[in-house]
């Protein structure tokens, strides 16, 4: 009888722990939201005097190299040789493996590690880049739960959307200077990338910048399709 009571107690403790973890994760997702944006007013924003950012409610120094990268001229991306591909550009984000693949038709152009949603889920589905912004400021999360973030000069942002995930939700691919834990979920929903790698995607993907540093997509200059699939590993 004593062994049975011990077993029942152990099972109850195990189940209670699981429930508490699930509840905690739901609370974090609910009260640690990704910051929303106003699609009508979102614009390029860069302040070279910003030196401090906040991630998970902790201050950090913005790397000096970020200012150098944002100040330099556009990089050269690979040219596709006519006949080598059989279709347009597309980006795939594999949540299970935390990787981004960029294709031109059937030719793989880029293959990079990323970090997707931890505090909030990265949406799955087929999306389109609706604007490219060379740098902007992002903030959100929860100070009470110690997940608050204030990130000036986020580099090479490509916001995406579809009919179910509107533009104001603020999901995007962008550079990341506040962590280096790529290959593991780390974000509030966006797709985090190494700055030097997302820079290549920024100049490769559509809409074409047409000589500008930032641009919105149009019917004549549409954005590249982004396909997000899989289930992110537990974090």
Structure description:
The chain contains three helices and eleven strands, in the order αββαβββββββαββ. The protein has helices spanning 2-31, 64-71, 195-204; strands spanning 52-55, 58-61, 89-94, 99-104, 107-113, 125-140, 149-161, 172-176, 191-194, 215-216, 225-229. The model is unreliable at 10-27 (pLDDT under 50). It is an alpha+beta fold and 235 residues long. The radius of gyration is 20 Å and the shape is globular. The two termini are 39 Å apart. A hairpin with a 2-residue loop joins β4 and β5 (107-113). The chain has one domain (32-229): L,D-transpeptidase catalytic domain-like (Beta Barrel), CATH 2.40.440. Strands 3, 4, 5, 6, 7, 8, 9, 10 and 11 form a nine-stranded mixed sheet that branches. It is 20% helix and 31% strand.
Brief descriptors of the model:
235 residues, alpha+beta, L,D-transpeptidase catalytic domain-like, two-stranded antiparallel sheet, 20% helix, globular
Radius of gyration: 20 Å
Average pLDDT, rounded to a whole number, is 87
Total number of helical segments? 3
What class do helices, strands and sheet pairing give? alpha+beta
Low-confidence spans: 10-27
CATH architecture: Beta Barrel
Overall form: globular
Helix content: 10-25%
Q: Specify the CATH homologous superfamily.
A: L,D-transpeptidase catalytic domain-like
Strand portion, in percent? 25-35%
Terminal Cα span:
39 Å
CATH topology: L,D-transpeptidase catalytic domain-like
Sheet bearing the most strands, described? 9 strands, mixed
Q: Based on DSSP secondary structure assignment, what is the total number of beta strands?
A: 11
CATH C-level category: Mainly Beta
Order of helices and strands: HEEHEEEEEEEHEE
User: How many discrete domains?
Assistant: 1
């Amino acid at each position: 009888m004593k062994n049975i009571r011990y077993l029942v107690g152990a099972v109850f403790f195990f189940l209670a722990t699981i429930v508490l973890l699930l509840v905690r994760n739901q609370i974090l997702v609910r009260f640690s939201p990704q910051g929303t944006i106003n699609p009508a007013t979102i614009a390029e924003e860069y302040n070279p005097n910003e030196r401090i950012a906040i991630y998970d409610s902790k201050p950090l120094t913005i790397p000096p190299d970020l200012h150098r990268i944002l100040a330099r001229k556009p990089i050269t991306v690979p040219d596709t040789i006519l006949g080598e591909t059989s279709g347009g550009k597309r980006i795939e984000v594999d949540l299970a493996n935390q990787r981004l693949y960029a294709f031109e038709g059937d030719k793989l152009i880029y293959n990079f590690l990323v970090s997707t949603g931890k505090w909030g889920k990265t949406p799955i589905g087929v999306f389109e880049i609706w604007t490219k912004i060379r740098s902007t400021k992002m903030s959100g999360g929860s100070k009470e739960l110690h997940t608050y973030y204030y990130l000036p000069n986020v580099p090479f942002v490509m916001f995406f959307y579809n009919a179910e995930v509107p533009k104001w939700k603020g999901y995007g691919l962008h550079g990341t200077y506040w962590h280096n834990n790529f290959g593991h979920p780390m974000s509030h929903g966006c797709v985090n990338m190494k700055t030097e790698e997302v820079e290549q995607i920024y100049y490769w993907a559509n809409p074409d910048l047409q000589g500008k540093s930032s641009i919105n997509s149009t019917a004549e200059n549409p954005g590249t399709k982004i396909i997000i699939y899989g289930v992110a590993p537990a974090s």
